[in-house]
Amino acid sequence: MRNREILRIAANVARMDFCPRDRIHWNPLDDDAEALRLSIRLGIGIEFIPPSPLDGRWLIVASVAASANRERSIDVSRWVNDLNSPDVGRLTRRCIVLCAIEIAKWKKEHKGLA
Domain 3-109 adopts which CATH fold? Predict the structure, then answer.
């Protein structure tokens, strides 16, 4: 899936404006503030799980409860070698946006329940 399509779906599930013909104005893949707004709007939490002694990599997890009683959650994760790496921001934003995509899929599958 291309970034433009990912952004369109994320904007749709968050009920935000997205105009695909023009230059992208809303882009949580590139903008920390937009990613934070998207996570707040959809209730997506971010967690940084410390590395195990064996692996040494951090795990970035974006998650949200997918049911009212919180029995099911939607999780998207990415690995990063070092929290000081320039990739941390990019990977965190991507986790948030991909979590929004998973929310859209879940809502489509559970139309009457969402």
Answer: Double Stranded RNA Binding Domain (3.30.160)
